[in-house]
Amino acid sequence: MFFYSVFKTLVGKTVVVELKNDLAIQGTLVSVDQYLNIKLDHVSAVDSARYPHVATLKNSFIRGSVVRYVHLPASAIDTALLQDATRNEPGNR
Amino acid sequence: MAESSVARPFDLIKLNLDEMVQVKLRGNRELVGKLHAYDQHMNMVLGNVTESVTVIDVDLLNHQATGANVVKRNIEMLFVRGDGVILVSPCAHPHDG
What we know:
Largest sheet of chain B: 5 strands, antiparallel
Structural class of chain B: mainly beta
Strand order of the largest sheet of chain A: 4-3-2-1-5
Number of domains of chain B: 1
Largest interface: A-B, 27 and 26 residues
Distance between the termini of chain B: 39 Å
Order of helices and strands of chain A: HEEEEEH
Helix content of chain A: 10-25%
Strand content of chain A: 25-35%
Strand order of the largest sheet of chain B: 4-3-2-1-5
Function (chain B): Binds specifically to the 3'-terminal U-tract of U6 snRNA.
CATH topology of chain A: SH3 type barrels
Radius of gyration of chain B: 16 Å
Keywords (chain B): mRNA processing, mRNA splicing, Nucleus, Ribonucleoprotein, RNA-binding, Spliceosome
CATH topology of chain B: SH3 type barrels
Subunit structure (chain B): LSm subunits form a heteromer with a doughnut shape.
Number of domains of chain A: 1
Largest sheet of chain A: 5 strands, antiparallel
Radius of gyration of chain A: 14 Å
CATH architecture of chain B: Roll
GO molecular function, one term (chain B): poly(U) RNA binding
Number of helices of chain B: 1
CATH architecture of chain A: Roll
Protein name (chain B): LSM complex subunit LSM3
Distance between the termini of chain A: 15 Å
Shape of chain B: elongated
Oligomer: heterodimer
């Protein structure tokens, strides 16, 4: 549940979700769940000329398993806090 | 008796927190960046990352590889989903590999 908590702190921020099929979608993070499924508002494809089928979308639900990366706003991340939380995670062997 | 503080593979990764690591991913991708967080699925957050994608050019008529091309880009802060991770290794400062 660790990254679920991390993503919950990023709700409202603008992120870019890069999928395993190379599609990159920018949007505002609305919600996340335990599977790291993601809901985004105000979506736009990063390369809109190559992926016109996103042009009509306003919101999106992205299945967690198809995500390759999520580009995060560096200003929203407290790296020291993240590292400490990782060390203290009971799930970490 | 001999007691090790590195009991399991994930302990090895814990040693790399706040260090530069090299991550090999599926799809001929490599990341080099600072490891800020990870979990048991090998989901990770990396900072100051360079992603290198290796593209093999193939001459279709002769079925031969004509060259390898590496496409790089930098990302300030990146969440990586664990199901794409093949390996994690420490690397020496600065950007290595």
